[in-house]
Every structure is written in C-alpha cells, then in structure tokens.
Design goal:
446 residues; alpha/beta; Rossmann fold; 3 domains; 44% helix; 15% strand
Length: 446
C-alpha cells in the first residue's frame, strides 16, 4: 500500500523488539521496515530504510535514545521519533522533547495506545511536510557572484516579547522565496529560539562550534556549521546551552558576519534584547537595524531610550528603521500616539494575527509558508522587498489608505486627549510629551 506507515523499532531487548513487531503486524496501514538493538545501529539503519516513524527506547547501552534522537534529527529529519520509557518522570519527557521526539509513551502501554500514537505522529508530520510543498518549486537561490557584499540586517528590540524572532525568521524566508541567497543568524547567544521556530535541533551545529577556528583565524569551514533549511535559507544557530555563549566573542561575531556577507545576498541577524559587546558589534556592522516595538507603553519608553543611544553611537537615521508589530491591536494607544511620543515616523507596520502566527510557531513552520495569503504574511513580504531595495506598489496604496484613516480619526484623537487624565501626579508639563501618558502636555489634564 502506498500510504503504509514505515516504522523502525529501536530497543536493546530482543523480546521487546519481537513483541512490538508482532503487535504492528496486525495493522494493515503499518509496515515494520527494520529493528535495531542500539542507537548507533538505528541511525545507520534509518539512513537506509528512511522510516516515517521511529519507536525509540530511551535507556540503551552505548548510545542512548536521547542522543540517537538528536542525531536522527540532523541526519534523517523526516523520521518522527516516539520515545518509549519505563520512567514517566517529567525530566525524561522534557529531555525527549528537547532532543526532537514527537511523542512519549510510558511502558507498559497497550496496543491501542501504540498504534494511535504512531498514526497521530505520522499524520502531523505528513501535514507539516505538505506545508513545505510550495518551497520545492521556489527559485534556486543565487550565489553572490556580483562581487558586492551582502546587506546585513539586524532585527533588534530594546524590549522582549514584541515578536522579534518571529519577524526575523519569516523575513529571511520571504527574501529566500524571492530567489535571494539568505543567511539567518541567531544572535541571541544565550537563549536563542530560531531553531525552535524552524524545527531545527542539531546540537553539534552552532556558532559556538566555530569558536576554536575563530580564535586562530578566518572561519574557513563555516558552511559545515550552517544548516540548509527546507525553506531555502541557511541558518547559523545559537549555542545549545546558555553557558556556551561565553565562547562567542566580539571578534568572532565580526568574522562570521564578514564570511556570510561574501556568500549571500542578505544576512538577517536576530539580536538579543539587551546591550552587550557582541550585540553592539552586530548593530555597528549592520547596514539596516529593524527596531521592533509594539503598542505598549513600556515598549515605547524603551524605544525612546534606544533612539537616544543610537544617536549617541552616531547611527544615521536612515540606518534605524522602526517596525511596529501588532499595529492594529486595540490597546488604547494609537500609531499617532507612538510617533508623537518618540518624535519620528514608524517606517513599517505589521498586523496582529495571533492565530496564524502561533499555529505555525507550534509546528515549527514559518507562517509565511503555512499561510502565504494572510495579511501578516503580506506585511512581511513588503518588509522584505523594502529591505532588498525593491519598491512595492501595494505598500504605497496602503500608505494612502492609512493616511486617510488617520485623518478620519483625528477628531477622535483630539477628543480623547482633552478628556484624558494622566495617572502620574508628577505630570511633566514642560516636556513635549509626558513620559507616562504619552499625550502632548498642552492638552493633557493634570
């Protein structure tokens, strides 16, 4: 049968392997394609039989199930692992999920539990892979043979929780779908999430593994540590554990970015949300800094502070672009309020679409691929075209419509301001805008 689920059984006990094989032999839609007695044998066999699902015992001599699952994620990424264990503690479950397992079964389990888990995991993986179908037909990335260095775009926010990593990932994917050769660097070296959003988890491929080479010279084998994602982008992940971030030095980061400049059309760096030496080095090297903010007073306050620092660092205004995420959220603060508070225009806006974004995030699929027609995806596409120096006629139309909408709401803004009461008894009547209420001080009631 064409749709039979190919299963590989991995357990160090021969009786268990035979018992599972017999149980699955009664299922018409399941085919046992092999059995292995250890992790190393499982990896070698999986490369030959290409299973859809791997039943993996967690405790085995030699290479255990956790290590074997991590290696399978890198060498046979289409194989979904169901971890089996007599231990049901939360720590075993957490370690299994971090290694890349899709399901966790506690022994002993029934035949119904086993087959239901296999079918459910296979169905989810099949659905995920089908979402990548448009990527196969995407234009082949062009090598940077122009002699001109790639543009480095740093995505930064002085406050966490504004969607920085999500925007970075989808921006890179959108640019790659346009036929560009794109590299994505996870610059949050302690707690990077790029790998999670792209369903990547190889522990032996990160910027930390480049550290020894970076200390002695140029990173000649950087391609060895860059992962080719099925969306067309090339990804350099953050270290797998926070303490390894100390291995990444400022000089090392500069060498990595220079190496990626030479072989790509665009380099996107997802920066961390605080200032340190490596982050400042990335911002200094960047051609464009996409600075994220949201319609929250703490985000706006931090943005004002960052713009002051950017001015002190000598960054030209054209280098720093303001990107307002979830711009259509009804939170009591409007785009005009933000612009008045920070003293400059917002350059790009992205709508709020929690359903599409979270649904894609939880499946390790960029929403630009899973829901290309959504408004949030179109906003990302406009941002990508702007970064690549391409004009979008649709964006121009939207700007006209936005201006008209702002004019229509102007009278309501004024009315709200007149009736507004600032919660701060120390309301700053001398400043252009009160730092607490954001309203112009000549209309705010004190």
């Amino acid at each position: 049968m064409a749709d039979r689920i190919k299963v590989l059984i991995v357990d160090d006990i021969p009786e268990t392997r035979d018992h599972l094989s017999k149980l699955l032999g009664f299922e018409s839609d399941v085919e046992v394609v092999g059995a292995a007695g250890g992790g190393a044998e499982a990896i070698e066999l999986a490369g030959k039989v290409r299973p859809d699902v791997v039943l993996m015992d967690i405790n085995m001599p030699g290479m255990d199930g956790i290590t074997a699952t991590e290696k399978l994620a890198a060498e046979v990424p289409t194989a979904a692992v169901i971890m089996m264990s007599v231990q049901g503690e939360a720590d075993y479950l957490r370690r299994s999920m971090l290694a890349g397992a899709r399901e966790f079964l506690v022994k002993p389990f029934s035949s119904d539990e086993l087959t239901a888990s296999i079918r459910q995991v296979w169905s989810r993986e099949k659905d995920k892979q089908s979402r990548f179908a448009p990527v196969v037909a995407a234009p082949e990335p062009k090598s940077n043979g122009t002699g001109e260095p790639a543009s480095v775009v740093a995505v930064f926010s002085p406050k966490g929780g504004v969607g920085r990593t999500t925007i970075s990932v989808n921006l890179a994917v959108a640019a790659a779908q346009d036929g560009k050769r794109v590299a994505l660097v996870d610059g949050s070296f302690q707690f990077g999430d790029v790998g999670v959003l792209l369903n990547l988890n190889p522990r032996n491929k990160s910027i930390a593994d480049l550290a020894p080479e970076l200390e002695v010279g140029e990173p000649e084998s950087i391609d060895t540590f860059v992962i080719n994602h099925s969306s067309g982008i090339r990804v350099l992940l953050a270290p797998p554990s926070p303490e390894m971030a100390e291995l990444v030095t400022t000089s090392g980061v500069k060498k990595v970015l220079e190496a990626l400049r030479a072989t790509n059309d665009l380099v996107v760096v997802d920066c961390t949300s605080w200032f340190n030496d490596t982050t400042l080095a990335i911002l200094d090297m960047a051609d464009v800094i996409l600075t994220m903010l949201s319609l929250e007073i703490t985000s706006i306050k931090n943005m004002r502070l960052f713009l002051e620092v950017a001015d002190q660092l000598g960054y030209e205004q054209g280098k720093v672009k303001l990107v307002l995420n979830r711009a259509d959220s009804t939170l009591g603060i409007r785009v005009a309020d933000v612009e008045n508070s920070i003293g400059r225009k917002v350059d790009h806006t992205i709508v709020s679409d929690g359903r599409s974004v979270v649904y894609a995030l939880n499946r390790g699929v960029p929403f630009f691929l899973s829901n290309r027609e959504a408004q949030v995806s179109q906003d990302i596409l406009r941002l990508a075209k702007s970064v690549l120096g391409e004009r979008s006629q649709v964006a121009a139309v939207d700007d006209i419509e936005l201006d008209a909408l702002v004019d229509d709401l102007a009278q309501w803004d004024n009315l709200d301001a007149i009736n507004h009461s600032c919660p701060d008894f120390m309301h700053d009547s001398n400043a252009r805008n009160c730092s607490t209420c954001l309203y112009p001080t000549d209309t705010a009631a004190t």
